Amino acid sequence: MKFRYHFQKVVDLKSNEKTQAEWMLSTAIGKLQTEEEHLIQLLNDRNNLVGIIQSATENTASVNSLQEMQRYVHHLDECISRKNNDVKHAQVNVQRNQTFLNGKMVDEKVWLGARDKAKIKFQQDMLLREQNDLDEMATVRFAAKAGRAN
């Protein structure tokens, strides 16, 4: 007789939910990395532009071009501020997905533990049945020998 767990579909569901939570976390981490890379690019662009402005002031650049570059630095500062907010939101999303995944992992572990306990009980019951069958066979043989001996 083979072990069949009556709640196997629940175990499968919990496993699938955990897998889905892993995918969601992976997606959130990818989004966070993308946002951080974009922020780094904006910071590098700003630093490069500040360096260009400094060298332009040393080389007597026109006031209009300096003002235009300064406006662009201001624009980059605004972009950096927005991107910092995006990074914070992405970090919160990663944390939320990690918490969700932890919950799904606990659910799966509980159901797997219940299945394992049921399997152990099934195996113990099977061993007990086999032992009872062997005991019964031995009793029948003993009774048959005792009956022939009389």
Tell me the number of strands. Answer: 0
- In CATH terms, what is the fold-level topology? Helix Hairpins
Sheet having the most strands: none
Shape: rod-shaped
DSSP strand content: under 5%
CATH class: Mainly Alpha
Mean of all residue-level pLDDT scores: 95
Low-confidence residue ranges: none
Number of helices: 2
Task: Describe the protein's architecture and organization.
With 150 residues, the chain is mainly α. The chain has one domain: Helix Hairpins (Orthogonal Bundle), CATH 1.10.287. The chain is built from two helices and no strands. Helix 1 packs antiparallel against helix 2 (63-149). The chain is rod-shaped and about 130 Å long. The two termini are 40 Å apart. The mean pLDDT is 95.
Features:
single chain, 150 residues, mainly alpha, Helix Hairpins, rod-shaped
Chain-wise SSE layout:
Layout: H1 8-58, H2 63-149
Helix pairs in contact: 1-2
